[in-house]
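Our preliminary data section would be incomplete without showing what the modeling component actually yields. Below, a chain of 114 amino acids is followed by its predicted structure, encoded as tokens that our downstream tools consume directly.
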Amino acid sequence: VHYVESGGGLVQPGGSLRLSCVASGFSFSGYGMSWYRQAPGKERELVARITSSGSSTYYVDSVKGRFTVSRDNAKNTVYLQMNSLKPEDTAVYYCRSTAPIGSWGQGTQVTVSS
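Predicted structure:
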């Protein structure tokens, strides 16, 4: 099982980024997927979830209305569109199956700073 996250970078407050995560080694279309983040000195936290079909999503309160999770089962890929970014969104972002399979990927760094 592998998760490869990409799309992070340095962005100014109010900016946008789109993260991607390609998963392999399991039946992607049969699993819900989740995005997590870990800021320096803090615990890893759940950011968003999406069901296997993509029909239902969940967001932590701090990102509601700003982040959108989506998936393309044909490409074994889950996305996180992040708009109106704030400095407190700075973290390493990870994806993983909601019912956890395999180890964490390397993550992708998101830095929101002017």
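The beta strands are 2-6, 9-11, 17-24, 33-38, 45-50, 57-59, 67-72, 77-82, 91-97, 108-112. The longest strand covers residues 17-24. Preliminary results of this kind motivate Aim 1 of the renewal.
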